[in-house]
Amino acid sequence: MSNAQTIAELTTSNSIAVLGSLLPGEVPTPYASLMPYVLDESGAPLLLISGLAVHTQNIHAHKAVSLLVDGTGGYEDRLAGPRSTLVGQVEKVEKASFKDHYIARHPSAAMYYDFNDFELYRMTIERAHLVAGFGRVHWVEGDAVRAAIIDSLAA
């Protein structure tokens, strides 16, 4: 399995990740939060987030984010398991057309999906950092990751 395929497998088999964003300020400070996501047909993660959340305020100041997808569950030594950090930019998208798709993956979102303060953001994956276990660390370009995710979704 290629590195891009490993990242695609992690990304398609999970639906919760850790979102990294930057707190605005004179010196931007890293901020991490738990984030449900779904993937659209182009392999891009879609994030439904409230305008009241700290990470949303961060995104308004800095479009650059990361999304850590963890595949280490079930490993006795969690550091031996695979994980990948997707790196890219986010932009707001029209949320109405993704409602059924999002709620199918996250049914609890049905009660707040239509709230006015919730918006949907699409992440464009520019690169991904894969840690496939001890000493197996690779950067993979976004085009390869997106193509592998699309192939994985098609299967």
UniProtKB/TrEMBL annotation:
PANTHER family hit by this protein: CREG1 PROTEIN, OS07G0573800 PROTEIN
Superkingdom of the source species: Bacteria
Species this chain originates from: Lacibacterium aquatile
Alphabetical list of Gene3D superfamilies matching this protein: Electron Transport, Fmn-binding Protein, Chain A
Domain CREG-like beta-barrel, chain residue ranges per copy: 10-143
Entries under InterPro entries matching the protein: CREG_beta-barrel, Split_barrel_FMN-bd
Pfam families (alphabetical): CREG_beta-barrel (PF13883)
Protein name: HugZ family protein
